[in-house]
Amino acid sequence: MKTKRLVILGSTGSIGVQTLEVVRSLGERFQVLGLAAGRNVTLLEEQARQFQPRLIWSEDDGARRALEAAAGPGARWTPLEEQAAHPDADLVVVGTVGRAGLMPTLAALRAGKAVALANKEVLVMAGAVVTRAAAQGKGQLLPIDSEHSAIWQCLWGERRSSIARILLTASGGAFRDYTQEQLARVTPEEAMQHPTWQMGRKITVDSATLINKGFEAIETRWLFDVPLERIEVVLHRESIVHSLVEFVDGCVKAQLGEPDMRVPIRIALCYPERVPNAARSPIDLARIGELHFDAPDFRRFPALSLGLKAGRRGGTYPAALAAADEVAVNHFLAGRLRFTDIAGLLEDVLSTHVSAADTDLEAVLEADAWARTYAEDWVRAKV
Amino acid sequence: MKTKRLVILGSTGSIGVQTLEVVRSLGERFQVLGLAAGRNVTLLEEQARQFQPRLIWSEDDGARRALEAAAGPGARWTPLEEQAAHPDADLVVVGTVGRAGLMPTLAALRAGKAVALANKEVLVMAGAVVTRAAAQGKGQLLPIDSEHSAIWQCLWGERRSSIARILLTASGGAFRDYTQEQLARVTPEEAMQHPTWQMGRKITVDSATLINKGFEAIETRWLFDVPLERIEVVLHRESIVHSLVEFVDGCVKAQLGEPDMRVPIRIALCYPERVPNAARSPIDLARIGELHFDAPDFRRFPALSLGLKAGRRGGTYPAALAAADEVAVNHFLAGRLRFTDIAGLLEDVLSTHVSAADTDLEAVLEADAWARTYAEDWVRAKV
């Protein structure tokens, strides 16, 4: 058993923290080579003390001394991209949120690393660029998201050409049973009450608008090379069935489990092995009793349509949508936008944006910048 | 694309008829080399005329001339075992019911054939003998039953050592909602009303007693080399989830689809390819709406416990149980036994039988003969 050396980007976020929990539970299989995070220096310092990484970095330059000291003798201040492409790294976990994960992901893939990707925006923004980088550098993308992990597992031992349809399941988010009128009045605090998953703030709001599923459909398109036309969203309130794949012969496979992000994290870390998990809670279907499925309501959750539409259009539409969504969610969380305004803003972005012909990195970053400016202006005009 | 040459044993039964339907729909991929059936000469003659097999056989010797003529010039009267081991056969479909499938299955496996097995009793009676024959002759067992096909598909791309648990789903049969008192009074006609599957008479009664699932657990044990202790039965009335596999890391995979035996038949015939099926009806989970799961009621359906118990005990207990069940079901269908007597008889068989130390073919056939005699005596004493 070779020890895998991990770089964890975004180690203080929801995915980062759970990744370290999984790493701890797996003992000698893993060694933490690098940790990088934003501004939660207190937690990063604690992680550095515990895992003694050789590479450490935080957005907060002022914490450099303290963090290097906590990481132990020989620890080096190493920014995200450098950690991602470090010669000693076997697997790079990208647990950052928003645009921050893009450049490190590209760096890792170009350096031929395996990248366990939890950051949705990376593929949504720049799927073409990322998959190109993976092909050129012989890097490998491993999904961490529960839905994509489910699809991935359903495809083990199958040919890509056998895929007829992918069914992405959606819990429906915090407001799945709300009327349109109620939706207009929800608060950021209410949006944080996700019915089944414990996740970061941005993703929890994205789950509530359902744009999350639009993004996941776009990621699915790039991860598994399936056109958007063959990707469907089905509501499934229990979040037990994590997604399904229908094959050309009519068979359907699904992956199931209690909602627990540590499971897909573990799968990605251990791949291609299935490592026994003594702490697993075996699924008890008789206790679960019922699994529900329903069609999504595009009228109440227009952001889902917008996400799928951006995906079908391709080009830089998804990048513009993702950037605008980041701005919109921030303003919603700060109390400056109503929940229903998020989709309003996104609709305007999508109808105003003009995609670049080439979706190279430059075009993507340009679309991103354009959409952020557009969104900020939109919010300013609204408030 | 190489044409696969098929031998279909039990071609006039439920599985045989559906296999020929699948073969017809797949055009040039298959050629029917041999057909063999029991006493439904009319249907066999029609099949022979349509598929022009080189090998033909029926239990009814008197029909030989007519059948050979229907099969066309050069057609040869060829008994089951000889068809199964024929040098030109690529795949042998064993769709017979009861003990009749055993010797042909062994012959095919010893000759290194792929055997698509729908006949439950073969593995229940003689799993050790059959798997030994497959190993020695380099034959391959492909399951046709929907549950085993589901498990099989869930295991593609997985290691056997990764299996933690297998969850066999059971519709619950015709009487799943009956009280114990009602069960004592049911008629053979009522037992034929299976809620989700169209199957043969014997299997439909076995589904109603739930011994069917005990048999399937034993088959699972042999097909996938998983001890009975790791095989569980879960009630699932819709028969949409055809079975599930839980892996050591806590992930669960399932295979789903509308209940249609032609789907698993098609999988086994086409393996290792997934051949596009234009006629497939894509699963519509939103329309299905709900999937239910429940624990089986061993008190109302004691035959299920008996099946699992025989499986755990091993030796010739399963062979004795299967033989006695065949006798019991025949007498029930003929109106000579009450439905609840079936389990009563099986319980007595299991507690009276003494397993042989070696489960070679001789011991299996001896146990089979013993149980049939015991069961006939039991019925005679009862009536």
Explain the overall architecture.
The structure is a homodimer of 383-residue chains. Chain A has 383 residues and is α/β, with parallel strands linked by helices. Chain A folds into 3 domains: 4-144, Rossmann fold (3-Layer(aba) Sandwich), CATH 3.40.50.720; 149-257 and 288-301, no CATH class; 314-383, Orthogonal Bundle (Rna Polymerase Sigma Factor, Chain: A). Helices cover 48% and strands 16% of the residues of chain A. Chain A has 17 helices and 12 strands. In chain A, the strands form 2 sheets. Chain A has a 7-stranded parallel β-sheet with strand order 4-3-2-1-5-6-7, sandwiched between helices. In chain A, helix 1 (14-25) links the parallel strand 1 and strand 2 (30-37). The longest helix of chain A has 22 residues, at 361-382. The mean pLDDT of chain A is 95. Chains A and B meet through helix 7, strand 8, strand 10, strand 11 and helix 12 of A and helix 7, strand 8, strand 10, strand 11 and helix 12 of B.
Binned, the helix content of chain A reads 40-55%
Largest interface: A-B, 50 and 50 residues
* Count of DSSP strands of chain A: 12
Counted up, domains of chain A total 3
Mean pLDDT of chain A, as a whole number? 95
Major sheet strand order of chain A: 4-3-2-1-5-6-7
CATH architectural name of the largest domain in chain A: 3-Layer(aba) Sandwich
Low-confidence stretches of chain A: none
Main beta sheet of chain A:
7 strands, parallel
Radius of gyration computed on alpha carbons of chain A = 20 Å
CATH class value of the largest domain in chain A: Alpha Beta
